[in-house]
Amino acid sequence: MSSWLERQLSSHQIQLAATALVSGITVAGLIYGGQAVRRKIAVEQLKASIPPLNDEHKAEGLTDFGAATLPPPSVGEDERVAGLARRAQQGDYDEELISEQLTRTASFLTTPRFEKLRSSFVIIVGLGGVGSHCTSALARSGVSHIRLIDFDQVTLSSLNRHAVATLADVGTPKVQCVRKRLEAVVPWAQWECLNEVWREGQAERLLGGWDHGRGRNPDYVVDAIDNIDSKVELLKYCHEHDIRVVSSMGAGCKSDPTGVFVGDISTSMEDPLSRTTRRKLKLLGIGEGIPVVYSTEKPGPGKAQLLPLREEEFAKGKVNELSVLPDFRARILPVLGTMPAIFGYAVANFVILEITGYPHEFGLGKGREKLYDSILSGLQGLEERLARSAGQDPLGLKIPVTKDDVSYLVEEVYRGKSVISGLPTRLALTRWRSPKDGFKTDQRWNGQKHSKVQLDELVCMTKEEAKMHEEEVLKGGKPPEVMYDVDVVKLVESRHEEERQYRRYR
Protein backbone atom coordinates (compact mmCIF):
# COMPACT_ATOMS: atom_id res chain seq x y z
CA MET A 1 0.00 0.00 0.00
CA SER A 2 2.82 2.40 0.95
CA SER A 3 4.74 1.59 -2.25
CA TRP A 4 1.64 2.41 -4.31
CA LEU A 5 1.25 5.75 -2.52
CA GLU A 6 4.94 6.59 -3.06
CA ARG A 7 4.61 5.85 -6.78
CA GLN A 8 1.52 8.08 -7.08
CA LEU A 9 3.16 11.00 -5.23
CA SER A 10 6.22 10.77 -7.43
CA SER A 11 4.02 10.96 -10.54
CA HIS A 12 4.52 14.21 -12.45
CA GLN A 13 0.77 14.53 -13.31
CA ILE A 14 -0.27 14.16 -9.69
CA GLN A 15 2.19 16.84 -8.64
CA LEU A 16 0.79 19.25 -11.26
CA ALA A 17 -2.78 18.62 -10.15
CA ALA A 18 -1.92 19.19 -6.50
CA THR A 19 -0.11 22.41 -7.33
CA ALA A 20 -3.14 23.69 -9.29
CA LEU A 21 -5.50 22.82 -6.43
CA VAL A 22 -3.39 24.62 -3.82
CA SER A 23 -3.06 27.64 -6.11
CA GLY A 24 -6.87 27.78 -6.65
CA ILE A 25 -7.54 27.63 -2.94
CA THR A 26 -5.02 30.39 -2.32
CA VAL A 27 -6.49 32.66 -5.02
CA ALA A 28 -10.05 32.05 -3.79
CA GLY A 29 -8.99 32.92 -0.26
CA LEU A 30 -7.40 36.12 -1.42
CA ILE A 31 -10.51 37.08 -3.40
CA TYR A 32 -12.97 36.36 -0.61
CA GLY A 33 -10.69 38.00 1.90
CA GLY A 34 -10.52 41.13 -0.24
CA GLN A 35 -14.28 41.19 -0.63
CA ALA A 36 -14.75 40.85 3.12
CA VAL A 37 -12.40 43.74 3.71
CA ARG A 38 -14.22 45.87 1.16
CA ARG A 39 -17.61 44.98 2.71
CA LYS A 40 -16.34 45.93 6.14
CA ILE A 41 -15.03 49.24 4.84
CA ALA A 42 -18.34 49.92 3.04
CA VAL A 43 -20.36 49.15 6.18
CA GLU A 44 -18.18 51.45 8.23
CA GLN A 45 -18.56 54.22 5.68
CA LEU A 46 -22.35 53.73 5.60
CA LYS A 47 -22.55 53.88 9.38
CA ALA A 48 -20.41 56.99 9.39
CA SER A 49 -22.76 58.66 6.89
CA ILE A 50 -25.79 58.28 9.16
CA PRO A 51 -26.27 61.52 11.13
CA PRO A 52 -26.86 61.35 14.87
CA LEU A 53 -30.49 61.41 16.04
CA ASN A 54 -31.60 64.91 17.03
CA ASP A 55 -34.38 67.41 16.26
CA GLU A 56 -33.14 67.71 12.70
CA HIS A 57 -32.70 63.99 12.10
CA LYS A 58 -35.46 61.83 13.59
CA ALA A 59 -36.04 58.10 13.38
CA GLU A 60 -39.36 56.24 13.38
CA GLY A 61 -39.80 53.20 15.59
CA LEU A 62 -40.68 49.73 14.37
CA THR A 63 -44.23 48.47 14.26
CA ASP A 64 -45.53 45.70 16.53
CA PHE A 65 -44.62 43.29 13.73
CA GLY A 66 -40.97 44.41 13.60
CA ALA A 67 -41.36 46.30 10.34
CA ALA A 68 -40.44 49.90 9.64
CA THR A 69 -43.29 52.38 9.85
CA LEU A 70 -44.29 53.81 6.50
CA PRO A 71 -44.48 57.59 6.33
CA PRO A 72 -47.27 59.24 4.31
CA PRO A 73 -46.48 59.86 0.65
CA SER A 74 -44.08 62.74 0.26
CA VAL A 75 -44.96 65.91 -1.56
CA GLY A 76 -42.45 64.89 -4.17
CA GLU A 77 -44.29 61.63 -4.82
CA ASP A 78 -47.59 63.48 -5.09
CA GLU A 79 -46.05 65.82 -7.62
CA ARG A 80 -44.68 62.91 -9.63
CA VAL A 81 -48.10 61.24 -9.73
CA ALA A 82 -49.81 64.52 -10.65
CA GLY A 83 -47.28 65.11 -13.42
CA LEU A 84 -47.85 61.64 -14.84
CA ALA A 85 -51.62 62.20 -14.68
CA ARG A 86 -51.38 65.52 -16.52
CA ARG A 87 -49.40 63.91 -19.34
CA ALA A 88 -51.75 60.91 -19.48
CA GLN A 89 -54.83 63.13 -19.60
CA GLN A 90 -53.28 64.93 -22.56
CA GLY A 91 -52.84 61.65 -24.38
CA ASP A 92 -49.22 60.92 -23.44
CA TYR A 93 -49.89 57.44 -22.13
CA ASP A 94 -49.51 54.06 -23.79
CA GLU A 95 -52.98 52.79 -24.77
CA GLU A 96 -51.70 49.22 -24.48
CA LEU A 97 -51.06 49.79 -20.77
CA ILE A 98 -54.62 51.01 -20.32
CA SER A 99 -55.97 47.99 -22.20
CA GLU A 100 -53.92 45.63 -20.07
CA GLN A 101 -55.05 47.28 -16.83
CA LEU A 102 -58.71 47.08 -17.83
CA THR A 103 -58.58 43.76 -19.65
CA ARG A 104 -60.72 41.84 -17.13
CA THR A 105 -63.52 44.40 -17.27
CA ALA A 106 -63.33 44.52 -21.06
CA SER A 107 -63.51 40.73 -21.29
CA PHE A 108 -66.56 40.65 -19.04
CA LEU A 109 -68.51 43.36 -20.84
CA THR A 110 -67.28 42.60 -24.38
CA THR A 111 -65.85 45.31 -26.62
CA PRO A 112 -68.98 47.26 -27.69
CA ARG A 113 -70.24 47.60 -24.11
CA PHE A 114 -66.81 48.34 -22.73
CA GLU A 115 -66.33 51.19 -25.22
CA LYS A 116 -69.55 52.76 -23.90
CA LEU A 117 -68.15 52.61 -20.38
CA ARG A 118 -64.77 54.05 -21.43
CA SER A 119 -66.39 57.06 -23.08
CA SER A 120 -68.99 57.67 -20.37
CA PHE A 121 -69.41 60.72 -18.14
CA VAL A 122 -70.63 60.20 -14.55
CA ILE A 123 -71.31 62.76 -11.82
CA ILE A 124 -70.98 61.77 -8.16
CA VAL A 125 -72.58 64.11 -5.62
CA GLY A 126 -71.31 63.40 -2.12
CA LEU A 127 -67.91 61.83 -1.40
CA GLY A 128 -68.30 60.27 2.01
CA GLY A 129 -68.11 56.52 2.57
CA VAL A 130 -70.61 55.59 -0.15
CA GLY A 131 -69.57 58.19 -2.72
CA SER A 132 -65.82 57.58 -2.39
CA HIS A 133 -66.14 53.81 -2.82
CA CYS A 134 -68.50 54.29 -5.76
CA THR A 135 -66.07 56.71 -7.43
CA SER A 136 -63.14 54.38 -6.89
CA ALA A 137 -65.02 51.46 -8.46
CA LEU A 138 -66.15 53.50 -11.47
CA ALA A 139 -62.69 54.89 -12.13
CA ARG A 140 -61.00 51.50 -11.77
CA SER A 141 -63.59 49.97 -14.10
CA GLY A 142 -62.82 52.40 -16.91
CA VAL A 143 -65.12 55.45 -16.67
CA SER A 144 -63.02 58.19 -18.23
CA HIS A 145 -64.91 61.38 -17.34
CA ILE A 146 -65.90 61.94 -13.70
CA ARG A 147 -67.24 65.06 -12.01
CA LEU A 148 -67.03 65.19 -8.23
CA ILE A 149 -69.28 67.49 -6.18
CA ASP A 150 -68.84 67.87 -2.42
CA PHE A 151 -68.34 70.86 -0.14
CA ASP A 152 -66.84 68.94 2.79
CA GLN A 153 -63.32 68.11 3.95
CA VAL A 154 -61.82 64.82 5.06
CA THR A 155 -62.17 64.35 8.82
CA LEU A 156 -60.39 61.98 11.16
CA SER A 157 -63.64 60.21 12.06
CA SER A 158 -64.45 59.55 8.39
CA LEU A 159 -61.33 57.42 7.80
CA ASN A 160 -63.15 54.32 9.07
CA ARG A 161 -65.29 54.27 5.91
CA HIS A 162 -63.61 56.40 3.25
CA ALA A 163 -62.28 54.54 0.23
CA VAL A 164 -58.99 56.34 -0.40
CA ALA A 165 -58.36 59.05 2.23
CA THR A 166 -55.33 58.80 4.51
CA LEU A 167 -54.23 60.66 7.62
CA ALA A 168 -52.33 63.03 5.37
CA ASP A 169 -55.63 64.02 3.72
CA VAL A 170 -57.41 65.10 6.91
CA GLY A 171 -58.49 68.71 6.54
CA THR A 172 -58.30 68.71 2.74
CA PRO A 173 -61.31 68.91 0.38
CA LYS A 174 -62.79 65.50 -0.34
CA VAL A 175 -63.01 66.18 -4.07
CA GLN A 176 -59.26 66.87 -4.29
CA CYS A 177 -58.41 63.94 -2.03
CA VAL A 178 -60.34 61.45 -4.18
CA ARG A 179 -58.92 62.83 -7.40
CA LYS A 180 -55.33 62.81 -6.10
CA ARG A 181 -55.47 59.26 -4.81
CA LEU A 182 -57.19 57.82 -7.86
CA GLU A 183 -54.88 59.59 -10.30
CA ALA A 184 -52.21 57.26 -8.97
CA VAL A 185 -54.38 54.33 -10.14
CA VAL A 186 -55.97 55.63 -13.36
CA PRO A 187 -53.84 58.59 -14.49
CA TRP A 188 -55.64 58.84 -17.84
CA ALA A 189 -59.09 59.55 -16.32
CA GLN A 190 -60.42 63.09 -16.68
CA TRP A 191 -61.71 64.88 -13.58
CA GLU A 192 -63.79 67.93 -12.74
CA CYS A 193 -63.76 68.77 -9.02
CA LEU A 194 -66.39 71.13 -7.62
CA ASN A 195 -65.76 71.86 -3.95
CA GLU A 196 -69.20 73.28 -3.23
CA VAL A 197 -72.62 72.48 -1.81
CA TRP A 198 -75.28 71.02 -4.08
CA ARG A 199 -77.97 73.66 -4.57
CA GLU A 200 -80.97 73.46 -6.82
CA GLY A 201 -80.36 77.02 -7.96
CA GLN A 202 -77.01 75.89 -9.40
CA ALA A 203 -78.31 72.60 -10.80
CA GLU A 204 -77.99 73.54 -14.46
CA ARG A 205 -74.30 74.30 -14.00
CA LEU A 206 -73.51 71.46 -11.59
CA LEU A 207 -75.22 68.82 -13.70
CA GLY A 208 -74.42 70.38 -17.06
CA GLY A 209 -72.28 69.00 -19.85
CA TRP A 210 -68.62 68.14 -19.54
CA ASP A 211 -66.04 70.92 -19.77
CA HIS A 212 -68.26 73.64 -18.31
CA GLY A 213 -71.22 72.64 -20.43
CA ARG A 214 -69.35 72.49 -23.72
CA GLY A 215 -69.14 68.70 -23.85
CA ARG A 216 -71.45 65.75 -23.57
CA ASN A 217 -74.20 65.54 -20.97
CA PRO A 218 -73.83 63.12 -18.05
CA ASP A 219 -74.68 59.50 -18.67
CA TYR A 220 -75.54 59.02 -15.01
CA VAL A 221 -75.71 60.96 -11.75
CA VAL A 222 -74.97 59.28 -8.42
CA ASP A 223 -76.68 60.70 -5.35
CA ALA A 224 -74.58 59.93 -2.27
CA ILE A 225 -75.78 62.91 -0.23
CA ASP A 226 -76.75 62.39 3.40
CA ASN A 227 -78.66 65.66 3.78
CA ILE A 228 -82.32 64.96 3.09
CA ASP A 229 -83.35 68.33 1.68
CA SER A 230 -80.41 68.36 -0.76
CA LYS A 231 -81.05 64.74 -1.69
CA VAL A 232 -84.71 65.43 -2.46
CA GLU A 233 -83.84 68.52 -4.51
CA LEU A 234 -81.27 66.57 -6.55
CA LEU A 235 -83.59 63.64 -7.22
CA LYS A 236 -86.47 65.95 -8.10
CA TYR A 237 -84.32 67.92 -10.56
CA CYS A 238 -82.99 64.79 -12.26
CA HIS A 239 -86.47 63.25 -12.46
CA GLU A 240 -87.98 66.39 -13.98
CA HIS A 241 -85.13 66.85 -16.48
CA ASP A 242 -84.86 63.20 -17.57
CA ILE A 243 -81.34 62.82 -16.17
CA ARG A 244 -80.64 59.24 -15.18
CA VAL A 245 -79.89 59.08 -11.46
CA VAL A 246 -79.38 56.42 -8.79
CA SER A 247 -79.58 57.23 -5.10
CA SER A 248 -77.99 55.64 -2.06
CA MET A 249 -80.16 55.40 1.01
CA GLY A 250 -78.82 55.12 4.55
CA ALA A 251 -75.92 52.80 5.41
CA GLY A 252 -75.82 54.01 9.01
CA CYS A 253 -76.85 51.57 11.77
CA LYS A 254 -76.78 48.73 9.21
CA SER A 255 -74.70 45.57 9.56
CA ASP A 256 -76.17 42.90 7.26
CA PRO A 257 -74.58 42.94 3.78
CA THR A 258 -77.09 40.35 2.53
CA GLY A 259 -79.90 42.84 3.11
CA VAL A 260 -78.62 45.42 0.60
CA PHE A 261 -80.76 45.67 -2.55
CA VAL A 262 -81.17 47.78 -5.65
CA GLY A 263 -84.77 48.66 -6.39
CA ASP A 264 -87.27 51.37 -7.12
CA ILE A 265 -87.63 53.94 -4.35
CA SER A 266 -91.23 52.85 -3.83
CA THR A 267 -89.99 49.42 -2.65
CA SER A 268 -87.47 50.66 -0.07
CA MET A 269 -88.45 49.96 3.52
CA GLU A 270 -86.93 49.70 7.01
CA ASP A 271 -84.73 52.76 6.44
CA PRO A 272 -85.49 56.16 8.03
CA LEU A 273 -83.54 58.08 5.37
CA SER A 274 -85.33 56.20 2.59
CA ARG A 275 -88.75 56.67 4.17
CA THR A 276 -88.25 60.39 4.67
CA THR A 277 -86.83 60.89 1.17
CA ARG A 278 -89.62 58.84 -0.41
CA ARG A 279 -92.24 60.66 1.59
CA LYS A 280 -91.03 64.13 0.62
CA LEU A 281 -90.76 63.10 -3.02
CA LYS A 282 -94.35 61.83 -2.95
CA LEU A 283 -95.44 65.19 -1.65
CA LEU A 284 -93.77 66.64 -4.76
CA GLY A 285 -95.63 64.21 -7.01
CA ILE A 286 -92.82 61.66 -7.46
CA GLY A 287 -93.83 58.25 -6.18
CA GLU A 288 -91.60 55.93 -8.18
CA GLY A 289 -89.18 55.77 -11.09
CA ILE A 290 -85.97 56.43 -9.15
CA PRO A 291 -83.59 53.48 -8.56
CA VAL A 292 -82.08 53.36 -5.09
CA VAL A 293 -79.72 51.18 -3.09
CA TYR A 294 -81.24 50.39 0.29
CA SER A 295 -81.13 47.89 3.12
CA THR A 296 -84.01 45.71 4.28
CA GLU A 297 -82.33 45.08 7.62
CA LYS A 298 -84.72 45.68 10.50
CA PRO A 299 -83.69 47.47 13.70
CA GLY A 300 -83.74 45.37 16.82
CA PRO A 301 -82.57 44.96 20.42
CA GLY A 302 -78.82 45.26 20.76
CA LYS A 303 -78.36 46.84 17.33
CA ALA A 304 -76.87 50.26 16.70
CA GLN A 305 -79.18 53.25 16.74
CA LEU A 306 -79.06 57.04 16.76
CA LEU A 307 -77.07 58.21 19.75
CA PRO A 308 -79.14 60.19 22.27
CA LEU A 309 -79.21 63.97 22.03
CA ARG A 310 -77.35 65.80 24.76
CA GLU A 311 -79.36 68.05 27.08
CA GLU A 312 -77.35 71.13 26.09
CA GLU A 313 -78.50 70.67 22.49
CA PHE A 314 -82.14 70.87 23.55
CA ALA A 315 -81.34 74.10 25.36
CA LYS A 316 -80.29 75.69 22.06
CA GLY A 317 -83.81 75.75 20.70
CA LYS A 318 -86.43 73.69 18.88
CA VAL A 319 -84.18 70.99 17.49
CA ASN A 320 -87.10 69.20 15.81
CA GLU A 321 -87.50 72.12 13.41
CA LEU A 322 -83.93 71.94 12.21
CA SER A 323 -84.28 68.81 10.12
CA VAL A 324 -86.79 66.37 8.73
CA LEU A 325 -85.38 63.72 11.04
CA PRO A 326 -86.13 64.74 14.65
CA ASP A 327 -83.06 65.90 16.62
CA PHE A 328 -80.89 65.10 13.60
CA ARG A 329 -78.68 68.17 13.94
CA ALA A 330 -76.69 66.95 16.92
CA ARG A 331 -77.22 63.20 16.92
CA ILE A 332 -74.50 60.90 15.63
CA LEU A 333 -75.42 58.05 13.32
CA PRO A 334 -73.16 55.07 14.08
CA VAL A 335 -71.61 53.56 10.96
CA LEU A 336 -69.90 50.20 10.52
CA GLY A 337 -67.13 51.00 8.04
CA THR A 338 -67.87 48.05 5.76
CA MET A 339 -71.48 48.99 4.99
CA PRO A 340 -70.91 52.28 3.11
CA ALA A 341 -68.43 50.41 0.92
CA ILE A 342 -71.04 47.76 0.11
CA PHE A 343 -73.58 50.47 -0.72
CA GLY A 344 -71.02 52.31 -2.85
CA TYR A 345 -70.04 49.26 -4.85
CA ALA A 346 -73.69 48.33 -5.34
CA VAL A 347 -74.33 51.82 -6.76
CA ALA A 348 -71.27 51.63 -9.01
CA ASN A 349 -72.22 48.17 -10.22
CA PHE A 350 -75.71 49.39 -11.13
CA VAL A 351 -74.33 52.41 -13.00
CA ILE A 352 -71.90 50.25 -14.99
CA LEU A 353 -74.64 47.82 -16.03
CA GLU A 354 -76.99 50.66 -16.94
CA ILE A 355 -74.44 52.56 -19.04
CA THR A 356 -73.23 49.50 -20.91
CA GLY A 357 -76.64 47.93 -21.40
CA TYR A 358 -75.53 44.71 -19.70
CA PRO A 359 -78.56 42.48 -18.92
CA HIS A 360 -79.74 43.01 -15.36
CA GLU A 361 -82.87 43.30 -13.26
CA PHE A 362 -83.73 45.33 -10.21
CA GLY A 363 -86.81 45.74 -8.06
CA LEU A 364 -89.46 47.69 -9.92
CA GLY A 365 -92.23 49.77 -8.38
CA LYS A 366 -94.86 48.10 -6.29
CA GLY A 367 -97.45 48.27 -9.04
CA ARG A 368 -100.28 48.83 -6.57
CA GLU A 369 -102.29 51.22 -8.72
CA LYS A 370 -105.37 48.98 -8.62
CA LEU A 371 -105.15 48.83 -4.83
CA TYR A 372 -105.02 52.64 -4.59
CA ASP A 373 -107.97 52.95 -6.98
CA SER A 374 -109.94 50.52 -4.84
CA ILE A 375 -109.11 52.37 -1.61
CA LEU A 376 -110.00 55.73 -3.18
CA SER A 377 -113.30 54.32 -4.40
CA GLY A 378 -114.02 52.94 -0.93
CA LEU A 379 -113.29 56.32 0.67
CA GLN A 380 -115.61 58.03 -1.82
CA GLY A 381 -118.37 55.58 -0.87
CA LEU A 382 -117.74 56.15 2.84
CA GLU A 383 -118.02 59.93 2.52
CA GLU A 384 -121.28 59.58 0.57
CA ARG A 385 -122.75 57.31 3.24
CA LEU A 386 -121.69 59.68 6.02
CA ALA A 387 -123.16 62.67 4.16
CA ARG A 388 -126.42 60.78 3.70
CA SER A 389 -126.50 59.91 7.40
CA ALA A 390 -126.22 63.64 8.16
CA GLY A 391 -129.18 64.46 5.94
CA GLN A 392 -127.03 65.68 3.04
CA ASP A 393 -127.59 64.78 -0.60
CA PRO A 394 -124.46 62.86 -1.68
CA LEU A 395 -125.20 63.11 -5.39
CA GLY A 396 -122.19 64.66 -7.13
CA LEU A 397 -120.10 64.74 -3.93
CA LYS A 398 -116.35 65.17 -4.48
CA ILE A 399 -113.61 64.37 -2.01
CA PRO A 400 -110.33 66.37 -1.78
CA VAL A 401 -108.21 63.21 -1.95
CA THR A 402 -106.34 61.87 -4.98
CA LYS A 403 -104.86 58.49 -5.80
CA ASP A 404 -101.42 59.91 -5.02
CA ASP A 405 -102.74 60.97 -1.62
CA VAL A 406 -103.97 57.43 -1.04
CA SER A 407 -100.58 56.01 -1.99
CA TYR A 408 -98.86 58.48 0.31
CA LEU A 409 -101.10 57.74 3.30
CA VAL A 410 -101.06 53.97 2.91
CA GLU A 411 -97.37 53.52 2.16
CA GLU A 412 -95.67 56.38 3.99
CA VAL A 413 -97.85 57.33 6.93
CA TYR A 414 -99.15 53.86 7.79
CA ARG A 415 -96.32 51.75 6.31
CA GLY A 416 -98.73 49.66 4.24
CA LYS A 417 -100.43 48.13 7.28
CA SER A 418 -103.62 48.47 9.32
CA VAL A 419 -103.14 50.75 12.31
CA ILE A 420 -105.42 48.44 14.31
CA SER A 421 -104.12 44.93 13.60
CA GLY A 422 -100.98 45.47 11.55
CA LEU A 423 -102.38 43.38 8.69
CA PRO A 424 -101.14 44.39 5.19
CA THR A 425 -104.09 43.07 3.12
CA ARG A 426 -107.58 44.30 2.17
CA LEU A 427 -106.74 47.85 3.23
CA ALA A 428 -109.08 50.84 3.42
CA LEU A 429 -108.97 54.46 4.54
CA THR A 430 -111.52 55.85 6.95
CA ARG A 431 -112.02 58.85 9.20
CA TRP A 432 -110.64 58.36 12.71
CA ARG A 433 -113.37 60.22 14.57
CA SER A 434 -116.58 62.16 13.85
CA PRO A 435 -116.06 65.90 13.26
CA LYS A 436 -117.55 68.26 15.85
CA ASP A 437 -119.88 69.89 13.29
CA GLY A 438 -121.00 66.56 11.83
CA PHE A 439 -120.54 65.21 8.33
CA LYS A 440 -121.66 68.33 6.50
CA THR A 441 -120.54 68.96 2.94
CA ASP A 442 -119.14 72.22 1.65
CA GLN A 443 -121.62 73.79 -0.80
CA ARG A 444 -120.43 77.40 -0.81
CA TRP A 445 -119.95 77.37 -4.59
CA ASN A 446 -122.93 76.88 -6.84
CA GLY A 447 -122.75 73.56 -8.64
CA GLN A 448 -119.87 72.27 -6.48
CA LYS A 449 -120.21 69.97 -3.51
CA HIS A 450 -117.30 68.41 -1.69
CA SER A 451 -116.40 66.65 1.54
CA LYS A 452 -114.40 68.48 4.22
CA VAL A 453 -112.26 65.47 5.06
CA GLN A 454 -108.51 66.17 5.53
CA LEU A 455 -105.58 63.78 5.13
CA ASP A 456 -104.63 64.01 8.79
CA GLU A 457 -108.13 62.80 9.75
CA LEU A 458 -107.75 59.48 7.92
CA VAL A 459 -106.43 56.18 9.18
CA CYS A 460 -105.60 52.90 7.46
CA MET A 461 -107.48 49.74 8.46
CA THR A 462 -108.58 46.52 6.87
CA LYS A 463 -111.98 46.64 5.19
CA GLU A 464 -113.49 44.55 7.97
CA GLU A 465 -112.09 46.85 10.65
CA ALA A 466 -113.21 49.94 8.73
CA LYS A 467 -116.76 48.62 8.47
CA MET A 468 -117.01 48.08 12.22
CA HIS A 469 -115.35 51.46 12.84
CA GLU A 470 -117.96 53.16 10.65
CA GLU A 471 -120.84 51.60 12.60
CA GLU A 472 -119.46 52.00 16.11
CA VAL A 473 -117.49 55.25 15.92
CA LEU A 474 -118.54 57.36 12.95
CA LYS A 475 -122.26 56.58 13.08
CA GLY A 476 -122.59 55.17 16.59
CA GLY A 477 -120.85 58.08 18.29
CA LYS A 478 -118.44 55.95 20.32
CA PRO A 479 -115.08 57.72 20.91
CA PRO A 480 -112.04 55.89 19.48
CA GLU A 481 -110.50 55.98 22.97
CA VAL A 482 -113.32 53.70 24.15
CA MET A 483 -113.26 51.50 21.06
CA TYR A 484 -109.51 50.81 20.99
CA ASP A 485 -106.71 50.25 23.47
CA VAL A 486 -104.31 53.02 24.46
CA ASP A 487 -101.43 51.81 22.23
CA VAL A 488 -103.58 52.04 19.09
CA VAL A 489 -104.79 55.53 20.05
CA LYS A 490 -101.23 56.74 20.70
CA LEU A 491 -100.04 55.29 17.38
CA VAL A 492 -102.81 57.04 15.45
CA GLU A 493 -102.11 60.34 17.19
CA SER A 494 -98.40 60.11 16.45
CA ARG A 495 -99.05 59.35 12.76
CA HIS A 496 -101.48 62.27 12.50
CA GLU A 497 -98.93 64.60 14.09
CA GLU A 498 -96.31 63.26 11.70
CA GLU A 499 -98.57 64.06 8.75
CA ARG A 500 -99.19 67.60 10.01
CA GLN A 501 -95.43 68.19 10.14
CA TYR A 502 -94.96 66.95 6.59
CA ARG A 503 -97.91 68.91 5.25
CA ARG A 504 -95.74 72.04 4.96
CA TYR A 505 -93.70 70.34 2.21
CA ARG A 506 -96.68 69.95 -0.07
In brief:
By secondary structure, this protein is of the alpha/beta class.
What key attributes describe this structure?
alpha/beta; about 500 residues; 9 strands; two-stranded antiparallel ribbon; about 45% helix; 7-stranded mixed β-sheet; elongated
How would you characterize the overall build of this protein?
With 506 residues, the chain is an alpha/beta fold. The protein is 44% helix and 8% strand. The chain contains 18 helices and 9 strands. The chain has helices spanning 2-9, 12-49, 75-89, 95-101, 103-109, 111-118, 129-141, 174-183, 203-206, 228-240, 272-283, 311-314, 338-356, 369-389, 403-413, 463-474, 480-483, 486-502, and strands at 121-125, 145-149, 190-194, 220-223, 245-248, 260-264, 291-295, 427-431, 458-462. The strands form 2 sheets. Strands 3-2-1-4-5-7-6 form a 7-stranded mixed beta sheet, with helices on both faces. The protein has a two-stranded antiparallel sheet with strand order 8-9. The chain is elongated, with a radius of gyration of 36 Å. It starts with a helix and ends with a helix.
**How would the global form be characterised?**
elongated
Name the helix and strand elements from N-terminus to C-terminus, one letter apiece.
HHHHHHEHEHEHEHEEHEHHHHEEHHH
Strand content: 5-15%
Give the helix tally. 18
Compute the average pLDDT: 83
Major beta sheet, strand line-up? 3-2-1-4-5-7-6
SS-derived structural category: alpha/beta
Q: How much helix is in the residues? A: 40-55%
β-strand number: 9
How far apart the termini lie comes to 119 Å
* pLDDT < 50 stretches: 62-72, 318-330
